[in-house]
Predict the structure.
Amino acid sequence: MRVVLLSSPGAEPALHWSFALGERLHSAMVDAGHEVRWLAPVVAGAGVPAQTAAEVLRVGAAPLHRVGDAILHDELERELANDLRARAADLVLHVGLGARGSANLLWLADRMGSRALAVVRAAEVLCHRGDLVDHRGESCTAIDDAERCRRCCSKGLRRAGHADLATRLDLLVCCLQVSAAVFVETATEVSQLEQVGVPRRLLHVAAPDEVAAAVLTRLAPASLSDA
């Protein structure tokens, strides 16, 4: 099977958790005999291991209040579209969807005929800050209140736009809705994503050390033919 693996850049000049998981997933899929191309957007300044299978694409760290810049990555979207146009993939797997970078990749994969899977942390999907903690440092449960989110996503007097925040969540949920499966770490995350419109049937709990086996199960020929 042919797989395109996508990780996410995160917001800090350090490697996002999806990069380490991408390494594990890439190794597991290659060891199982699959052909894997891994595209890894990385924030400028982050150190990347010398020995990695990732094709690194450097991205700028968008300020928190500039939501549109944080959810678009034209270079990666073009690269994925050109790749799938030249040669179909059996699976496009996005690890860390919501942690900056493009919010459109799995929708694009689905429109171009590839099966889509996602591995996410609900906090990064639901919260532009990525932590579900409000500006006062308290736990936030207003996961679909874009107006309240504006105050948390600000820099001085400059605040994120209501429409930008609402659009961000809509795009991410759309991508998860077209996925064949969405893997999260906890049952709480399942409930949180259900609240914003991700169907329960798509959501599966898998610890980080279980994700590779779950993805490989989805790559079985019988599983792909049932998609």
